Structures are given as structure tokens and as C-alpha cells.
Amino acid sequence: MLRQRRRAFTLIELLVVIAIIAVLIALLLPAVQAAREAARRAQCVNNLKQLGLGMQNYHDIQGSFTFGSRSAPGGVVPPGGSAQWYDDMSWYFSILPFIEQTTVANSVNFNLTVSCPANGTARMTKINTFGCPSDGLETDELPNATFGRIRGNYAVNFGNTDYGQDSAQKDQVTGLAVAFMGAPFSIGKCSNIPLITDGTSNTMMWGEILNPPDSTGWDGPIAETMIAVGGQGFEAWTTPNTRIPDLVTRLCPTIPGPGVRCNPAVLPAGQEGLSYFAARSFHSGVSMWDCATARSGS
Length: 298
Description:
Number of strands: 5
Oligomer: single chain
Structural class: mainly alpha
């Protein structure tokens, strides 16, 4: 009786199969990554929608939008923390009840600054609505009762000049002062819809910003959305996704490699309001080189 021999794969055939599988994976991965980024972008848009609805509901009940930040450089601040303007709170805490975060809002003592120990629980509670899935929430400094807080990815519109919203900022090309044209959010005061003369459909409420890289130390006020130091707002002084580093109000440490994360110079006393922060994003359709460079500040 003749036995039928089973034919095995040759080494060449096996290598061909492996090569085909590798090609298929290489073709499939970009599609999977694109689908994931599309989902992250959709979630980011939904976050902005929820924040917009929350701010609108706040306006409907209070008759105005919340303040951009409660205290100004050199101004009087509530007790707690170090009793400095940069320890006070921003719009972040005011809209918590309007985005279904009543429990966190109830833990906030609005009679004290945000950096006081009594508000530590609220500062260190991560709320996903404030973070873009393509970048993510970051914990600033080691969690402690004095300075630990969560950085976010969404900032309110502070206008076309700087954090202080004055006309002292000079154009970098012409050297001429640029007039402040108004903004829906300010320091120490609230605005409402009738005051937005350009119309709400022509005025931005929110912008996306980037968090600094993971760190166990202070990275400057960039993306410091919950306190009054300036990172809770964005300005149109520079274009979105600019390669120009943000100008910050206080000393910002350098990082390894070329460039620095932001301007390393401390502004003179009384000029802390002359800082500016740009809107930036990691989403597809945005120059990733610009975003990555802006994130490192080079």
C-alpha cells in the first residue's frame, strides 16, 4: 500500500506568509490609530459642548458668565494659601454644579483661596470633562495640602492682547501697541451676552490648550486652569499652535534639550498681567511639529 506523504511548509513559504502578515498589520495600524484619534477628537468636542452648556446654564441662572479669575495681580484676595493673587480661583469651580459635579462643588470653600488646605480635595479631584483624551489631565506637583492641583486642557477666551487685557502689549513686528478689543472673560468681573457686541456666534468661549509634560515639580502656569495665575485663559496674541513659547507671569524652569518650556524671565512687579498663553492641540489636522515644539517651548 502506498502511503501519501503530508507536504510541509518550506522555509521560504513561511517567510512569505510572515511578510504578508507584517504588511497587512502595517496597513491596518494607521487605520486603527486614525479611528482611535477620531474617537478622542469626538470626545474632546463633547467635553467642550458640555462645558459650553454648563457656562450657558450658569449665565441663565446668574445673569452673566462666571469671572475668568476672581483675583488680579496686586489685588485683595480671600484668606488661605499664601494670600497671593495666584492662589485664588478661576471659572473652574463656579461651573462645577452645572456640569453634574455638584459633589465636588460642595467640597469647595468659596470664602477661601483655592490653594488653601481646606480646598485640597476639590483641587486634587480629576474630572474627565476638563481633559482632552489626546493629551490628558496632569497632576501638578506632588499631591499635598498646599499646592497640589490638576491641570486641564480647556481655557476661556481672554481676548486679543494679554492676561491683563490692556493695550500695553506691543506688536512684535511693528512695535506699536495693540488695542484690547474686549473678551467674554476677565479678571475680577463678569460679562453677559448683551455685552458681547460681536455676537455669540462670532465669539469664542473656549479654546483647547496643552498640558506640560509629566513632572513632579512646578512647570509654570501653563494649563493651570483652576487658579488665577493666568493659565485658565487663552489669548489671541499669538496664533493657535504657534512655535512661539507662552510668556508666563512667574519663573518657569527649563527642560533638557533645546529651548525652554516658556519665557524663563520673571516679569517686573506690577506687570504680571502682561503674560499670554496660546491655544494648542494634538488633534489630527493640526501641525504636530508645531504642537510638540510648543509643548516643549523650543
